[in-house]
Write a structure and sequence with these properties.
Layout lengths: L1 E4 L10 E4 L8 E3 L14 E6 L8 H14 E12 L1 H9 L5 H8 L12 H7 L3 E7 L2 E7 L4
Parallel strand pairs: 1-2, 1-4, 2-3, 4-5
Antiparallel strand pairs: 5-7, 6-7
């Protein structure tokens, strides 16, 4: 089983697409992607993708949410998620690569709520099995491979 969490309009073929929004049609399962106990058992998922979802949780929730996702993976399963790394965004802004208006778009969701940023080095330091980290524009992606139990 492969999950695409917080999919919004980015529905992926071959995945169970999960989002809290109720207006996305019948290809999306409506539910809370922050805690998957309602949907699947521990060690039952092959792959989880969460594109720009971690920023929707408070800074204090992010690590717990990610650890919950890891628990759902089978040994050898892969979690890929993206978010905004504070250090990367600050560096890009100081170098003039991101303008003030773009910075506001990163920090504020369309509904006006502030998004959470993380410090990538701190986050990867407390999560088990980090196998790859890369940046794509303003987003930092982290890949975790679940180790054997």
């Amino acid at each position: 089983m492969r999950l695409n969490l917080g999919c919004g309009n980015e529905v992926m073929d071959g995945y169970v697409n999960i989002d809290m929004r109720t207006d996305l049609g019948d290809r999306v399962t409506v539910g809370d992607a922050g805690c998957l106990d309602w949907y699947c058992a521990d060690e039952s998922v092959d792959e989880i993708t969460a594109h720009r979802l971690v920023q929707c949780f408070s800074v204090g929730q992010i690590v717990g949410v990610i650890r919950g996702w890891i628990n759902k993976l089978k040994p050898g399963g892969i979690l890929r998620f993206s978010g905004y790394d504070f250090d990367e965004i600050a560096a890009m802004h100081s170098l003039g690569r991101i303008q003030r208006g773009d910075l506001v778009n990163v920090l504020c969701a369309p509904n006006g709520e502030f998004r959470s940023l993380f410090f990538m080095d701190e986050l990867t330091g407390v999560l088990p099995g980090v196998s790859r980290v890369w940046s794509n524009n303003l987003e930092t992606w982290i890949e975790i491979t679940k180790q054997q139990s």
